[in-house]
Structures are given as C-alpha cells and as structure tokens.
Amino acid sequence: MSDSSAGAAAGDVVAAAASTAAGWRRAGVAGAAIGVLAAGAAAGVAVERLTVGRGMRKKARLALDATGPYGSLRGTPGRAIADDGTELYYEVDEVQPAQPEGGAGPGSGGNRRRRLFGRKAPAPVTVVFSHGYCLGQDSWHFQRAALRGLVRTVHWDQRSHGHSERGRAQADGVALGIDQLGRDLKAVIDAAVPEGRIVLVGHSMGGMTVMALADQYPDLIRDRVAAVAFVGTSSGRLGEVNFGLPVAGVRAVRRVLPGVLRALGTQAELVEKGRRATADLFAGLIKRYSFSSRDVDPAVARFAERLIESTPIDVVAEFYPAFTEHDKSGALPVFRDLPVLILAGEKDLVTPSSHSEAIADVLPDAELILVPDAGHLVMLEHPETVTDRLADLLVRAGAVAAANVGEHGSTAQQPGRR
C-alpha cells in the first residue's frame, strides 16, 4: 500500500468519527473504531496490517494465541462480595518458604531469588494490583512473574471484567461511578488482605480506583497502606484528552460518543459480530493506542489485543461515562506521607504523561518516572522499567530486601537486544 493510500485510510477513520450515531450503526468498521476509542485502547490504522493478507493475519493470530505464555500465571482463587452483591474474582500468590542453603526453591529461579533478596523473609506486606479499563488482572503478567514467590500479591478483576461478575447494580440500571470501583477494591482488601500492610498498585482505571478508595476510606490508607504506585493514570480532567486526534475530530467524537455507545450497548450481539469481522482493523487500533514502540513483540501485541477484545461492548458503554466525571485530585493529599511511585509512558495518548505530572505536583515527594518511547500499556511494553521501579518502591515499603528484579526486559524487539 502506498503512503497516500495509507493516509487516505487514516483519513477515512477520522471522517467516520464525525458521523452520526445512526451512521455508526450502519458502518461496522466505524462502530468498532469508536467503541475501542472509548475503551482508551485504539485509534488510527497500522499500515503493516493493511499490507498483509487477511488469511495470513488470522493464521498468525492463532499461532500467537497458541504459543504465547502471557496471561498464563494463576494463583489461589478467591471471591469478594461488593456492596451491591457483585462477586469479584481475585487470585493470591503467596510468598515461597525460605529454602535451606544450597537448596532450590519451588519452580525455577530459587537460587537467583535468594541471591537477589537474601534469605531474610519478606516483611508481611501484600501488594494489591488493580488493572485498567477493558483489561484484566493478567495485564500485570510481567510484574507478577518477576515478583512471584518474593512477596505476597493479590491480582483481581474489576467488576464486569475478566472472571468477575457483571455489575449487579448496573444490571438494575444504576450508573457506574469510580466511587463504586473504590468500594469494590475495599471489598477485595477485606477478603484477601484482612490484616497486615498493603502496597496499592493501579494502572489507568486501576489508579483511579485507588484514588477512590482513598477518598472514601482515608483511615485505611493512613493505618494500613505502606506505599502506592500510580501507573499511566489520571486524577481528573479526562474530558480534555484529545487522543492524538485533530481538534475538530475530537470535538466530533465527544459530541456523538455518548449516544453512539448507548446505541451500541443495546445491540451488543450485533456489534460483537462486527468487531470479529473487522479484527484486522481492531488490532491496528489497539496497537496504535496501547504502544509507542514500532517493534513491540507481536506476541505481546496480540496478548493486549486479546485482553481488550474480550471486553463486551455493553461493558465499554457502561463504564465510559464514569471517566468524564472522574475527579479525585482532592483525595491525593492522603498519600503525602507515603512512598509513592508515579510512572507513565511519555507517548501515552490515553492518559497523557501530563496527567501524571499533575499528580506529582500534588505529591512533590513522589518519584516521577516518564518512560521514553512508551504508550498506555507501559507495563507490557517496557516491563523491565516498570518492574525495577516497582521493586524499589517495595524496598522502601519494607516488602522485600533488595530491588534487583530485572528478569523481564523490554518487549520491543531491538537490534542486538536479547
């Protein structure tokens, strides 16, 4: 495909974004595009996806699904009950018991872990990971793999995501708000971490969930939280994000988006068929808004694709309004006396790095890390950076005895990099 043809294709997507709600329903490709844009996961078309045969791309996806190890880690399952009765699924990875001198720990890497962390048992701290919109607990795959057995961790699926139940209140017509997600996190903590110190880690919507927890339960933060990590998130003003689109396009999208999503959410089965039929476009959109590196490992890109495409369109529609109303800047001071990590990709088009800088302005003692050549899914794109900074935070929180967790490097395929 020529550059002019690719430009025309991209222009078609932008033009489609300005269509009416009825137009979206008629155009399956455009409908899929706007749904993913709302999910904070997509915009634009990857040229390489347009220059390879559809059959070949389908076979490649199937091959990557069969061989990719990402998202395969499992822990001890549990369920928490939210205040509206919704069942929230979580998994716990416990600390591995200390081994005698010269012995190997359970699974691979036992000796390496003792060298990195010493033989001192980790402090009784639990790290609770909260994932983002249209993702799931497996989005923390690399960090979970690096920390597994070294510190107690809890990974949970937000309501209507992953293995958690669809929100019961939403099924009864109650609008979803970020405050509800904060209460959900409290329910998970009560069930999975009834005692001991906690480190809270949240990506995107997960970071907003942590802020909502602090807003409603400040005493919990003061009494039990040892440290906090905000990854690619925002404390508010998300309605001003332009997603890398021209101003006119953004205005058009904002004007029609609420009505479009409501319409799409009422025709979920039809829309899901459209998403499957336009899988190639969908993949290009996800890659555009998830990553910045041009050479991200295809298996990682496909993993992100699977996570996002598993979110039903009516869930996308259900959650979207909560983000325009989200404002938890007033809750941030609760974290001032804690070790705080604020990390974002410099080229994040969903929650721009300026939003992380705004959080850092309120928390001047926090560590602010802006990762070059990184997009919204920075923990998948540059896992080594995220894991290393998180490990340092855990050292400061007293959860581990050393910070050298460097087993998982960048997933961008760079010349000369192993």
Number of strands: 8
CATH class of the largest domain: Alpha Beta
Spatial sequence of strands, sheet with the most strands: 1-2-4-3-5-6-7-8
Structural class: alpha/beta
Helix content: 40-55%
Number of helices: 19
The helix/strand order is: HHHHHEEHEHEHHEHHEHHHHHEHEHH
Please name the CATH architecture of the largest domain: 3-Layer(aba) Sandwich
**The CATH topology of the largest domain, please?**
Rossmann fold
How far apart are the termini?
A: 32 Å
Count of structural domains = 2
- Average the pLDDT over all residues and give the rounded result: 78
Largest beta-sheet characterization: 8 strands, mixed
Strand content: 5-15%
**Oligomerization state:** single chain
Overall geometric form? globular
GO molecular function, one term: hydrolase activity
Pfam families: Abhydrolase_1
Keywords: Hydrolase, Membrane, Transmembrane, Transmembrane helix
Region (Disordered): 96-115
Notes on the structure:
By secondary structure, the chain is of the alpha/beta class. It folds into 2 domains: 3-68 and 240-321, no CATH class; 76-236 and 327-396, 3-Layer(aba) Sandwich (Rossmann fold), CATH 3.40.50. 47% of the residues lie in helices and 12% in strands. It has 19 helices and 8 strands. The chain has an 8-stranded mixed β-sheet, with helices on both faces. Strand 3, helix 7 and strand 4 (152-156) form a beta-alpha-beta unit. The longest helix has 19 residues, at 247-265. It is globular.
